[in-house]
Amino acid sequence: MPISAEELLSVVRKYWRSDHEFDGKLERSPELERFQALWKQELKRLDQWRVLMRDLRAALPQFEIGHATATSTSCFRCTVFTDRQPVEASHEDGPRERRWGVVGCLSILAPIYTVYGLQYDYKGKDVIAAKVFFDPLPPEMQALAEVVGRKIEAMFGAEALPRELAETRIPLIVDLLEPPATTLFHALFATAPENVAV
Questions:
Q1: Residues with pLDDT less than 70, the chain
Q2: Is 56 contained in some domain?
Q3: Fewest 10 Å CB contacts: which of 70, 92, 110, 123?
Q4: DSSP assignment of 45-103, as one string?
Q5: Residue 87 belongs to what domain range?
């Protein structure tokens, strides 16, 4: 049975607060205590996540597969990217490169996942632009996202979080993001989806 926005809000309330009561205090909030304890438990699945990435490398040898999990977010993350490719730029801008790919996320808070697209533009070693793509993904990212999604489903038994649920606004503060900007996506996955190590 598909999970509802109400059920997900009930889950994320255990880990994120709606006030600033613990800001500036040495004492950790009960929500932060639960979040850190959950990550400690979930890190036992890190080897299984690495198996997923190994499977992705075998299935997608032409792509660069990376591990982008950070315990400050609410999910395991992996990246599947192209190599850098030259793009046309004006003479004043100098040479630029672009790479694109997808990010697979498995929430630690609920048995759900999402896959979204990313594109980075580079000038030399510096990222000069980052663009995030959600459903519908650009055509070149769709097949890649399907492979990643199927692998996560098969290995972890998670279900995809529909975009309309992911965009549900929630009355909670997630990291430094506050209502009305906060969504279920932010609470279940990450507040800065463009911020992955690539």
A1: 1, 89-92, 197-198
A2: yes
A3: 92
A4: GHHHHHHHHHHHHHH-TTSEEEE---TTSSEEEEEEEPPPEEE---TTT--EEEEEEEE
A5: 5-188
